[in-house]
UniProtKB/TrEMBL annotation, chain A:
The lineage of its organism: Bacteria, Pseudomonadati, Pseudomonadota, Gammaproteobacteria, Oceanospirillales. Belongs to the binding-protein-dependent transport system permease family. MalFG subfamily. It comes from the Bacteria. Residues 72-264 form the ABC transmembrane type-1 domain. InterPro entries: BP-dep_ABC_trans_perm, MetI-like, MetI-like_sf. The keyword Cell membrane applies. It comes from Modicisalibacter muralis. This is Carbohydrate ABC transporter membrane protein 2, CUT1 family. GO terms for cellular component: plasma membrane. Keywords: Cell membrane, Membrane, Transmembrane, Transmembrane helix, Transport. SUPFAM superfamilies: MetI-like. PANTHER family: INNER MEMBRANE ABC TRANSPORTER PERMEASE PROTEIN YCJP, MALTOSE TRANSPORT SYSTEM PERMEASE-RELATED. The chain crosses the membrane at residues 12-34, 71-98, 110-134, 140-160, 193-214, 246-269. It is a multi-pass membrane protein. Coiled coil: none annotated.
TrEMBL record, chain B:
It is found in: Cell membrane. Belongs to the binding-protein-dependent transport system permease family. It comes from Modicisalibacter muralis. This is Multiple sugar transport system permease protein. One of its GO terms (cellular component) is plasma membrane. GO terms for biological process: transmembrane transport. Its main location: membrane. It is a multi-pass membrane protein. Signal peptide: none annotated.
Amino acid sequence: MFLSLARKTGFYGGIGFLTLFAILPVLWAFLTIFKTSGDLYSIGISPFFFDEPPTLSNLVFLFTRTNFPTFLWNSAIVGVCVVAITLLLAVPAAFALARLTGRWGEHSGMAIFLVYLIPPSLLFIPMYQIVVWLGVANSIWSLVIVLPTITIPFCTWLLLGFFRSVPRTLDEAALLDGCGQFTAFRKVVLPQVYPGIGACAVFAFSLSLGNYIYAATFINASAARNISAGVPTELIRGDVFYWPELMAATLVVAIPLAIAYGLFFNYLVGGFKNAT
Amino acid sequence: MSKAAATVATARDGGALARLARWLDQPKVLAWLMLGPAVLYVVAFVGFPFVLAIALSLSDATIGDPSLDNFVGLSNYATVIQTDAFQLALRNSLIVTAGVICLILVLATLASELLVYSFRGKRLFQTLFILPWAMPVSLAAIVWLWFLDSTFSPVDWILVELGVLGPGSPLGPYSHMYYLGREWLGLASTIVADVWRMLPLATIIVLAGRLSIPEERFEQARIDGAGVFRILFRITIPALKPMLIVAILFTSLLVIGEMSMIEILTRGGPGHSTQVLPYWAYLKGIAGGSLAQGAAIALFLFPFLLVVSVLALRAAYRAQEA
C-alpha cells in the first residue's frame, strides 16, 4: 500500500512511541541487572550508561544465594499442572459449546463472562477457608487446585473462538463418512485448533504465574512460595531493596514468556476475533 | 467404505459395550459429558466460594473463629462503609479504573490501527509490545517501583536533563518528583503502570475487532475522498464498538481486582490516600483477621459490576448484530 511521507512519519512515530512506552521501564530494569552498586547508586550521572564495567555478579547472587531457584521451580510445577488441568477441561467444554449445544451454545460467551465478574479479589477470603479445609494450605497444591478457576473460563472462551473458526463442513463430512461425534472431534476438528491450544497454554501458564492474591494469601512457607509472591516478600527485606536481583528475577521470567507470546500473537488475535 | 465407517459397522453388531458407546456418542449426551467436568469445577470452586463469601459477609467470622453460626445481617457493611479508609479505597478504585479505561481506549485503538499493516520488524515489535503483559503483575509493580524510585528514578533524570525539573525549572526547585509519595501523583502513577500492563491485552482484543471489518468499507470511503480521521471516526470506531466494550470489560475487571500494584507501589499510603478496595479487603480480612468485614469490602462492588457488565455485554451483542 502506498503511504505518503507524512503518513509514513506518523506511522513510524506511533510505532516508536508505543515501543518506547512498553520497553522504557524494562530497559531500565535490564541495565540495572548488570550495574555495580557503585555505578547504580551514584547521583548525577546518566542512568542509561555504564560508568563502571558491567557485571554478572548480581545474576549469580540471585541464583546461588537467594530462594529464587525454589520459587522458579514451584512456579513451573504449578504452571504445568494448571495448564494441564485447564486444557483437559476447557478443550472439550469449548468444543461442546461450539458444536453440540446448538443455539444455546451461541450465547455462552456471555455466560462465561459472568464468571469473570467474580474475581479472585472477591473469592480469596472464602477460598482461604476451603484451602484450609482441604488441608493444602501452605503448599503449592493449593494453587494447583484454585488457579484453574481463573484459566478455565478464559481458555474455554478463547477456544470457543478457535473451534468456531473451523468450517462446519469439515466435521459434517466426517459424520457423513460414518465417523462418530467424538471421533470427528478428536480426528478432524481438534488438529485444526492445535495453534489455538498452544496460544491458550501460553495464556494459562502466564496467568498462573501472574496471580498474586492467592499465592500471597495461601502460602507462608518460603519453600512453597512461587515467584509472584516470593520475590516481593523475600527479596525485599524491610527497607532494603536488592534492586539488581529484583530486576533480574523479573526479566528472567518475563523475557521467555514474552517470546512465547510473540510467537502466538497472531493466533491470539484470531481467537478473540471469533470468540465474541 | 472408509476405515472409520467400517469400525462403526462392526460396532453396530457388537455387544452392550458398543451400544453404550453409541449412546454416549449422541450429540446431547456427549455435550454434557464434555461440558460437565468444566461446569462442575466452576460450580465447586467459583460458585460455592461465592456463596460462602456472601455468608461470611453476613456473619461475624474471624480467622480465630471462622464459624458462620452468628448471623449479623448487613452490619458488617454498615461498619465498613463508615470508615475513612473504605471511602478512600472506593474512590480510588473507581478513579484508577476510569483513568485506565480512558487511556486504554485511545492507546489500544491507536496500536490496533498500526498493527493492521505489515511492516519490517513487526514480529520484534509484537514481542516487545507484549512484554509488559508477560510479566507477573507483582514483578511488573516492582519494576515500576524502581523506575519511579524517589532518588534514582531515570524519569526524574530525563526531566532534569530536559530542563523541566530541578532548581529554577517549571516543576519546582527539587530534582525529584517523589511520584509514589504523594496522593494524586501516586494514583496517576498507578494508572500509568496499569495502562502499561493492560495495553497489550486490550490491543489484541481491539485488533481482533479491527481485522473483522471488511476491507471494502475502507476502500469505498477512500474512493469517496474521506481522510484518515474521517475514516477513523466514521467507520473504524463505530465498527469497533463491540470489541472496544469487550476490551474495556476485560481491562476494568482485571484492574479493579488487582491489589499487588498498589500494595507494592504505595502500600495504600500516604495514610490511606491511595488505598484501593482489594488491598483494603486483604488488610482487613486476612492480615487483620476479620474475615467477615474483609468479605463485605470485597463484595461491595459486585452488584454494581454485575449491572454494568450485563448492560455493556448486551450493548456489545446488539452492536454486533446491527
